[in-house]
């Protein structure tokens, strides 16, 4: 992934600092025309940061409003022209020293700053490849006197101080990281002295520190931010050494609790080692230990988890609990930073909880078939639409188990395939009586002269072992054979994680044409199509 | 204090500390270009908590030139 930095001031300092941590940086040449190469040349970077200095943008300009409009139009054009790249544009801060009387307040610069944000916000809502880089927020929360450097400006046209540059670099690196690495999935929390102050078993439910204002607000603010993490699709779990009845009653009786019982997907309230609890949580949720972050105020507990489960991220708990809110924001940025959330993210906790109910139903059923019948599954299938792209990309990038070829296509590649008449891309949403699983299936097929080849077939592990793939494939095969294709080809490419589908196409009645250690190629001809289980209802949209 | 100066310089210039001495200067060190010079000034001011006046920045030639500002600070 190539990252480009563009600016209307000298950005060399920022680029040089960035390169120490991320090599693939391209800087724009000549800072007078930050937009020229983006509009006219070949743009190499996949991710573009446009960092604009407010004061320089309007230096010596008399008609400020039309200059602003002009810049915004340029940005809009850049975003449209580079639809396949991610573009971050900064908010602006106009730092101007001017001598004037008290009465003569300069409202114009604040109006310009705000108008700028408003315009960026509109672009943000129109284009999925556009993001706001909130430079003004970074500057104001640091303080202008510290963020800017007069000396470096006079010496080298560098606007920002060493500190200012470091803050910008840190933010850019967090964003790069969020795009490159899979984010963590689950946050495991301790209770006493973590989610609230005090030990509930000692002080009682009403006396724990938790309130809107004053001391207890340290914990309430912390809880509010954790609740926001949950809304982004992060799963919350508890591991606490406590009496279960106390904890249950805190959730029921303490009105200050922001986090509710149902916000937590799993609660391990017992006296066993926390590492054991975390291990069980990972197993029950079917996620890797490396996608868990654990928060506990007790250094002994943290050490125990760190030693037994080195894959788990265990941040140091702040010594000063006034910093709890900053602490969770930092954890968010480092481990869960999210560019955009999908509908599936928002509903994730509920989906996992629905799944627990399904497991219970399964235990009650006398056979798997009986259980599957009882689920009343509805499978909705349609050709990929632009509004599902985010979710499709998420499935392509993140699914490891039920993934036949593990081709990690980018959004650009997927968009190209959508436009190409030789490709068909299907997605499917699965619903049953316990709830909606969201979009859980994706298939990319390539039509060649006489055959259709299945390029990718991906399904979320949430709905595995329910014969959903059987139902969908039967339908698609019929369509393709009807169109006149003679055979369907499919491939399995082995990875470390996709063993569950190693023999999927054998089960679907395909013939193995050739195979080696890492790869199998299959074929199906019309006359060989087997009869398969038909579970639930298939609805074509 | 020399050690601290070497540490800061090694970070800014992206060189190992062993490759630098307090006598290292702008002619010896390829990485010490004009941008690095500014970064060095900024980082020294911040980390050593000193102020290097505008007029003197161009005169700084070797790492030992930074010691002067520390001495000035200590004499205050």
Quick overview:
Chain A is of the alpha/beta class.
Description:
The complex is a heterodimer of chains A (541) and B (76). Chain A is of the alpha/beta class and 541 residues long. Chain A contains 22 helices and 17 strands. In chain A, helix 1 packs across helix 9, helix 4 packs parallel to helix 5 and helix 11 packs parallel to helix 15. The longest helix of chain A is centred in the N-terminal third of the chain and has 19 residues. With 76 residues, chain B is mainly α. In chain B, 20% of the residues are buried. At the A-B interface, helix 1 and helix 8 of A face helix 2 of B.
Attribute tags:
heterodimer; A: alpha/beta; 5-stranded parallel beta sheet; 17 strands; B: 76 residues; mainly alpha; globular
Strand tally of chain A: 17
Low-confidence stretches of chain A: none
H/E element order of chain B: HHH
Taking the sheet with the most strands of chain A, its summary is: 8 strands, mixed
Q: Low-confidence runs of chain B (pLDDT<50, min 5 residues)?
A: none
Helix content of chain A: 40-55%
Give a topology summary.
The complex is a heterodimer of chains A (541) and B (76).
Chain A: E1 3-7, H1 12-19, E2 25-27, H2 36-40, E3 47-51, H3 54-57, H4 64-81, E4 86-90, H5 108-126, E5 130-133, H6 135-142, H7 144-147, H8 150-156, H9 162-180, E6 186-189, H10 200-203, H11 217-231, E7 235-240, H12 244-253, E8 264-269, H13 274-285, E9 292-295, H14 299-308, H15 324-336, H16 343-346, H17 348-364, H18 368-374, E10 378-383, H19 389-398, H20 411-419, E11 423-432, E12 435-447, E13 451-459, H21 468-483, E14 487-493, H22 504-507, E15 511-516, E16 519-525, E17 537-540
Parallel strand pairs in A: 1-2, 1-3, 3-4, 4-5, 6-7, 6-9, 7-8, 10-17, 13-14
Antiparallel strand pairs in A: 10-11, 11-12, 12-13, 14-16, 15-16
Helix pairs in contact in A: 1-9, 4-5, 9-15, 11-15
Chain B: H1 2-13, H2 34-48, H3 67-75
């Amino acid at each position: 992934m190539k990252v480009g930095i563009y600016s209307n001031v000298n950005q060399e300092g920022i680029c040089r600092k960035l390169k120490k941590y991320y090599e693939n940086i391209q800087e724009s040449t000549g800072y007078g025309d930050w937009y020229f190469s983006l509009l006219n040349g070949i743009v190499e970077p996949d991710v573009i940061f446009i960092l604009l200095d407010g004061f320089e943008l309007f230096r010596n300009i008399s008609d400020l409003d039309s200059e602003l409009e002009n810049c915004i139009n340029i940005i809009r054009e850049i975003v449209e022209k580079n639809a396949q790249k991610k573009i971050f544009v900064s908010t602006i801060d106009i730092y101007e020293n001017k001598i004037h009387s008290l009465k003569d307040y300069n409202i114009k610069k604040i109006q310009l700053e705000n108008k700028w944000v408003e315009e960026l916000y509109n672009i943000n809502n129109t284009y999925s490849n556009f993001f706001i880089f909130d430079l003004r927020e970074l500057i104001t929360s640091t303080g202008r006197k510290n963020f800017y450097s007069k000396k470096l400006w006079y010496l080298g046209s560098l606007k920002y101080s060493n500190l200012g540059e470091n803050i910008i670099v840190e933010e850019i690196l967090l964003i790069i990281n969020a795009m490159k690495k899979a984010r963590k999935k689950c946050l495991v929390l301790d209770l006493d002295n973590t989610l609230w102050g005090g030990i509930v078993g000692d002080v009682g439910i009403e006396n724990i520190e938790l309130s809107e204002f004053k001391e207890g607000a340290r914990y309430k603010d912390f809880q509010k931010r954790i609740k926001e993490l949950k809304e982004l699709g992060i799963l919350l779990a508890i591991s606490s050494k406590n009496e279960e009845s106390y904890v249950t009653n805190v959730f029921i009786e303490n009105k200050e609790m922001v986090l509710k019982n149902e916000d937590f997907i799993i609660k391990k309230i017992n006296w066993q080692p926390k590492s054991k609890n975390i291990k069980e949580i990972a197993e029950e949720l079917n996620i890797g230990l490396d996608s868990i972050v654990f928060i506990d105020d007790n250094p002994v507990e943290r050490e125990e988890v760190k030693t037994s489960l080195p894959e788990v991220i265990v941040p140091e708990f702040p010594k000063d609990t006034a910093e709890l809110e900053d602490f969770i924001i930092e954890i968010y940025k480092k481990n869960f930073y999210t560019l955009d959330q999908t509908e599936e993210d928002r509903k994730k906790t509920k989906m996992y909880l629905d799944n627990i109910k399904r497991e219970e139903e399964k235990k009650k059923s006398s056979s798997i078939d009986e259980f599957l019948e009882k689920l009343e599954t509805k499978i909705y299938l349609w050709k990929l639409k632009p509004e599902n792209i985010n979710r499709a990309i998420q499935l392509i990038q993140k699914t490891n188990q039920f993934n036949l070829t593990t081709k990690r296509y980018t959004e650009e590649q997927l968009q190209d395939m959508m436009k190409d008449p030789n490709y068909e891309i299907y997605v499917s949403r699965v619903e049953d009586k316990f709830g909606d699983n969201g979009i859980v299936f994706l298939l990319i097929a390539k039509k060649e002269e006489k055959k259709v080849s299945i390029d990718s077939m991906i399904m979320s592990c949430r709905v595995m072992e329910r014969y959903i793939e059987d139902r969908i494939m039967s339908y698609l095969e019929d369509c393709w054979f009807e169109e006149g294709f003679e055979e369907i080809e499919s491939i399995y490419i082995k990875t470390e994680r996709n063993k569950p589908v190693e023999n999927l196409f054998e089960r679907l009645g395909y013939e193995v044409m050739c195979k080696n250690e890492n790869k199998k190629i299959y074929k199906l001809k019309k006359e060989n199509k087997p009869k398969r289980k038909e579970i639930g209802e298939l609805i074509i949209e | 204090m020399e050690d601290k100066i070497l540490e800061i310089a090694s970070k800014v210039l992206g060189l190992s500390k062993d490759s630098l001495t307090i006598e290292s200067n702008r002619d010896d060190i390829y990485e010490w270009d004009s941008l690095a010079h500014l970064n060095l000034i900024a980082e020294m001011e911040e980390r050593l908590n000193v102020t290097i006046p505008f007029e003197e920045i161009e005169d700084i030639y070797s790492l030992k030139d930074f010691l002067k500002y520390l001495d000035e600070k200590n004499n205050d």
